[in-house]
Amino acid sequence: MDDTPLLALAFELAARAGQTILAVRARGFDTMHKADASPVTIADQQAELLIVAGLRAATPDVPVVAEEEVAAGYVPPPATGFWCVDPLDGTREFTAGRDDFAVCIGLVRDGRPVLGVVGVPAKGVVYGGIVGRGVVKRSATGEHPIAARHPPAEGIAVVASRYHGKDPRMGPFLAGRHVASTLNIGSALKFCLLAEGLADLYPRFGTTMEWDTCAAQAVLEAAGGSVRVVEGGQVLGYGKPGWVNPHFYAMGRQ
């Protein structure tokens, strides 16, 4: 299948998953905890079931690596291409009643994300793109192309994790950079702000998983930005042992 219908599929599934998540929020839910103590809700579970079923029905030959399935012990066999799914990125934001949580669906080939969709249900927007072909933002006002920006002369806008933004490694990493502002928010929305030209740099220290970054990295790369490993500077790749990411930084155009 060509990447254009695959992107359309991801858009559709992200939108439907977002509706499911908002319906759960409207009627109320309990917060549970997985073996690693991270929170999970029925919204995570229902959204993932919907996405995974849709992907497997449309692309049965492409494995799906999905956060809740992996947490439950399902480990798909190694493959050069696979879908990478975080059905509700920013569960802590969701359980706290905030709006910066996201639905993330990405596609990997040969270790690189090639397309991705990031839906932000509470804000009514969905970002999606194909690397090398551009990215769009869908909202109530329609569909519009977006692009990352070059660092402005007045200084860069930094986005950081709400929960990890005060990591002591941030200071040395930002030393020598002209930082005009810093915003702490949750989820893959940080990448989307870079892709939209509203921010310039997102450093991330601490543990993240491939499903946390795959779709958003594809969106950012499609918009002209990049995601690189702190130690070495190489592009963040996929299909790593245990799907664990090293420290990385995402940035707009350079």
What strand line-up does the widest sheet have? 3-4-5-6-7-8-9
Helix content: 25-40%
**What average pLDDT do the residues reach?**
95
Shape: globular
CATH superfamily of the largest domain: Fructose-1,6-Bisphosphatase, subunit A, domain 1
* SS-derived structural category: alpha+beta
Could you describe the largest sheet, including whether it forms a barrel? 7 strands, mixed
Textual characterization of the structure:
There is one protein chain. By secondary structure, this protein is α+β, with helices and mostly antiparallel strands. It has 2 domains: 3-146, Fructose-1,6-Bisphosphatase, subunit A, domain 1 (Fructose-1,6-Bisphosphatase, Chain A, domain 1, 2-Layer Sandwich), CATH 3.30.540.10; 156-251, D-Maltodextrin-Binding Protein, domain 2 (3-Layer(aba) Sandwich). It has helices spanning 3-27, 42-58, 67-71, 91-95, 170-174, 189-195, 210-222, and strands at 32-33, 39-40, 64-66, 81-89, 102-109, 112-120, 125-130, 134-139, 142-146, 156-161, 179-185, 201-204, 208-209, 226-229, 244-245, 248-251. Strands 3-4-5-6-7-8-9 form a 7-stranded mixed beta sheet, with helices on both faces. Helix 5 (170-174) links the parallel strand 10 (156-161) and strand 11. The longest helix has 25 residues, at 3-27. The mean pLDDT is 95.
